[in-house]
Amino acid sequence: MIPELGHYALMLALGLAVIQGLMPVVGTSSNDDVLIGMAAPAALAQFGFVAVAFVALAVSYVTSDFSVLNVYENSNSTMPFIYRLTAIWGNHEGSMLLWVSILTFFGALVAVFGVNLPAKLKANALAVQGWIAAAFELFILATSNPFLRIVNAPFEGRDLNPILQDPGLAFHPPLLYLGYVGFSIVFSFAIAALIEGRIDAAWARFVRPWVLVAWMCLTLGIAGGSYWAYYELGWGGFWFWDPVENASLMPWLAGTALLHSAVVMEKRSALKIWTILLAILVFSLSLIGTFLVRSGVLTSVHAFATDPRRGIFILTILVLFIGGALSLYAWRAPLLKQGGLFAPISREGALVLNNLFLTSACVTVFVGTLYPLALEALAGQKISVGPPFFNLTFVPLFIPLLLAMPFGPLLGWKRGDLVGAAQRLMAAEMLAAVAVAAAFALEHGGPVVAPFGVGLAIFVMAGALVDIAERTMILRLPLRAALRRAAGLPRSAWGTAFAHFGIGVTLFGIVAATAWGSERIVAIKPGNSVNIFHYQLTFDGMFDRSGPNYRDAVGHFTVRRSGGSLIGVMQPSRRTFPASNMAVTEAALMRRGISQIYLSLGDSNLSGAVPVRLYFKPDVIMIWWGAALMFFGGALSLSDRRLRVGAPKPAKRIRAALRAAG
Amino acid sequence: MILWFILASMTAAAIFAVLWPLGRGPRARRGGSDLLVYKDQLREIDRDRAAGLIGDAEAEAARLEISRRLLAAAEAQPKGAGKAAVAASPQSLRRKRLAAILVLVILPLGPPSLYLALGSPDVPDQSAFARVNAPSGREPVAALVGQVEALLGRNPNDGRGWELIAPVYMRLGRFGDAVEARRKALELNGETAVRHADLGEALAAAADGIVTVEAKAQFERAVAIDAHEPKARYFLGLAASQDGNSKKAAAIWRSLLDGAPPGAPWVGFVRKALARLSASSPIATTPTAGESAKAGADGLAAATAKPGAATATNPRVSASTASAHPPDTPRTSVSTTPSTGSTSKAGAIIPRNPQQ
After folding, report:
1. What is the pTM of this model?
2. What is the tens place of the pLDDT at every residue in A235-282?
3. What is the mean pLDDT of residues A303-315?
4. Which of A6, A524, B54, B209 has its CA 20 to 30 A from that of B330?
């Protein structure tokens, strides 16, 4: 009965989505407060019923109810609890339900926390949210229904794809979806503003927290996916320019641009038209990502099932929403008034530059991802666009962006002083030069450009520090006064500094790990050793180990310093899952400071000798720490008091806030 | 009955949630406005000025810009907003009534008709947990399988053990293991028509229900030993239909039905297959979503009987079975079937290192 309740709840949610999409629009156009007031309860109720559906599916998964086809196909009663739970979104149908759950969750958040929003903007945004939800709920019910049943339930399920039986599944998809779907709210706000025909600086302020939340989650989701691929797929790479990865990178790039252009719109009422367009584009890119991944156009770990009907359905949703949004934009945008003026060299100018480079980078990724597909579809020719293309196009676009990045926060609004900024960045520039020299002196081999990459990373990091030092005047004022200034800085300033610093950290990790990493691929016999960097690994032999639903063939390796002292043991394994009769490789990672030794067993066991891939990845962990810093910066910015301006608060707190501000 | 009662209450709750604001009558419009944002921005200019983020002249200009926006926003503020709205006009009453009617049409009609089309109200929950605790005294299957596997591990020449566990593997969907077990049973217990047919069936199940060349050879061997072996004959018909030769398939199945002993349990099943064949020429009929659940179910409940149908109706099932193959094993004769699409796609499921 539980799956049936979930099934029906989803259908009710569809009905509510239709109501949520209709009533507020009628209400705002006829200025009817009663109908406008229906938006929030409809959004809340819709979320409630989608949540019931999701929980029902979760119960079916956790209790291994194989009378549900979706559970039978993707779960197994021997799996540990955590995978029985995460298996919900380890398949197409369930992950679409998660998608809609998050979509309606955001709708409910707007309904509850959007108290500072103008009523009409809120109602229209919720209506647009209702259309999106209705489209995807219809998609689920029509082509990807997770609640279909089996009359005679089989005893045992088919098991989850072993690659997905990993803690990464608990974090990566939900975070990524929070990002993708979070941008749907921004899209809804953009459409709502266009419908109403009023787009002003306040709009950017209202939208800012939603952009931030989506961007933060997307950042962490992408980084998590990258780390997961790094340790699970067994060949030590962290980014492959795989179309599926690109599908998540494109909204991130456009979202980062939106985050910055929204600041200009908010502060100076400039770039309005552009910001609205970006808001539409970011979600469009999320939808295109969903289409690419879910339609079976691409084959990858993410394409759970390929069914042309689904592809066509998503394509229809895509065309309707993107086409509709862009038409509305083309119709309404010319009505918008110009905003504030600014000189080319100014904070605004710097943010425009940022947008220019980020969107160009996004376009190159778009071309690199879709051109091969289009070519295959039109000319039947198969080409592959890989790292060389992106190294030649994406990287050159990012270098000037990163070079300009530390200048941005140091430039004044309206008119900035570039020379002054360069002077204030002197410390960062010198530090970067020293880093380049040091890298040349210390490292051998590796590409010639690598030390410059390190220099750039240091420049970006130091630039973020300089920004904070300048604002707190820590070098000019006594410490006490500087600390007071630091406490008085808006949190968004700290957020900017942390996020920019994080970019530098990630860049450092990428440069170091790709340029100076070492790799050994050997077939090794028990008793033999292999050397890498300053370490020596001795292969002691293989042994078997069994887990809850798998068997491991484990290789036992002792790790020593080249000098001889023992460091530890590494145990990579080949893991076989009898339920699905599939095998995966479980790499062993050993952290050395911020570097890693990476060891994975090869695909087949030769007679006596075991093929192993052994990597030394210097500073590789910084890549993901950088992402975590970006997330933290976003969170700081999100906690900024100003984002809640206009939210009703008790009078006492307002007075206290005023006192604090004054 | 309880189910219908709960579904009805859910519908009622949904209706109430959206009708409730209609009943509240006109109220003051809540919500923030742009004014507050601009007022805060004016204060922010001072803060930026103090932090040296904006020059004096620029700060003055910016203040002017924001003040202008503030004035514009104040003018645009609808009159009377924030206060209680005027008494309900006849238009607003009409709109309200229309909205209520719409809600009362969409919610009580839409979801229930969808549910009648897609739902399966009669299928009981069958969680593995509940089944373990069921009073039938059945031990958890996994434990039983484990015991037999342990026995066979010690004594791999126990032909009876292999014969015993093979159907369990089939039922569990572990077709690869089922093939091994039936092969062993055939080897150790000697050749019979039934054993050949069983092995062929396992092979076909492991290949997504496609009767491969290898499986076909088993069925042909079975028929050579016993021309009346029904399972082998059924699958030979299936093989013909998968080759696109519906006529031959129909002929085989018809003769199978003609020679059926009275009360044979598989008669109805073969009849259905025959009906499907004549209904639409290729076997790959595309059923509706509701049917697909049932077909998937049949395919499993009796992996013994109808793996072909499972393939045709449910690509997801087939794709994951296919991945049960070690990736490098060459497949036999997938090209003979009309539903090759599902097998070639199966490769995609197995993640491969592009650099390997």
Report:
1. 0.76
2. 778 888 888 888 889 999 999 999 999 888 887 777 888 888 999 999
3. 73
4. A524
Q: Could you tell me if A491 lies within 8 Å of chain B, comparing CB atoms?
A: no
- The per-residue pLDDT for range A292-308, each reduced to its tens digit, is 777 666 655 565 556 67
Decide if B115 and A7 are in contact by the 8 Å CB cutoff. yes
List C-alpha distances in Å: A540 to A67, A81, A525. Answer: 47, 33, 9
- Report the greatest alpha carbon distance in chain A: 82
The ipTM of this complex is: 0.81
CB A323 within 8 A of CB A286: no
A387 in contact with B at a CB cutoff of 8 Å?
no
Pairing of strands A566-570, A573-577: unpaired
Q: Which of A7, A15, A38 sits opposite B107 (nearest CB)?
A: A15
A275 contact partners, CB below 8 Å, separation of at least 6? A204, A258, A261, A262, A264, A265
In order of start, what are the domains of chain B with their CATH numbers?
2-25+35-76+90-115 (no CATH), 191-338 (1.25.40)
Tokens standing for residue B74: 């104040």
DSSP per residue, B199-253: HHHHHHHHTTT---HHHHHHHHHHHHH-TT-HHHHHHHHHHHHHTT-HHHHHHHH
* B168 and B152 Cβ atoms separated by less than 8 Å: no
The residues with which A577 forms a beta bridge, in sequence order, are: A582
3-state secondary structure of A17: helix
Distance to chain B for A563, nearest Cα, Å: 33
**Interatomic CA distance for residues A176 and A199, integer angstroms:** 29
Please name the residue that has the structure tokens 């004769």: B333
Of A45, A73, A299, the CB nearest to B14: A45
Instruction: Work out the minimum CA distance from A398 to partner chain B, whole angstroms.
Output: 26
Choose the closest CB to A340 out of B54, B65, B356: B65
